[in-house]
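Hey there, shall we discuss this one?
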Amino acid sequence: MGRRVAGMLFAGMVAMLSMLFMEGCTQQVQPKLGSDDKKFAAFYADYLILSGVASDESETVSLVGGKDIDSLFEVHALTLERFNELADAYKEEPRLWRAVLLEVKNNLQENGR
């Protein structure tokens, strides 16, 4: 389970970066994010921070306090099933996925990353 989620998160991060670079400054009306979308974005940002992906350090940082992915789901009141449902929905709605990724980016910037 952990490897699948980590792989999905890494793939999403790569997609996020490529989308942001490709979109540039294009003005588009962004879809409004729901509470689950915001939970997903918060989870994703925290995962990137805690895993070391969004870190300035070259070393991978272990999850704070030995937390595993399941604990991170609990912190954000998100289940693996709901996470997967949302990820599948984002594949079908690229504009919503872009809005979620921008929310992730904002969350990372708020945390100084």
Remarks:
- DSSP finds five helices and no strands in the chain.
- The CA atoms of residues 38 and 60 lie 25 Å apart.
- The mean pLDDT is 78.
- Residues 2-23 form the longest helix (22 residues).
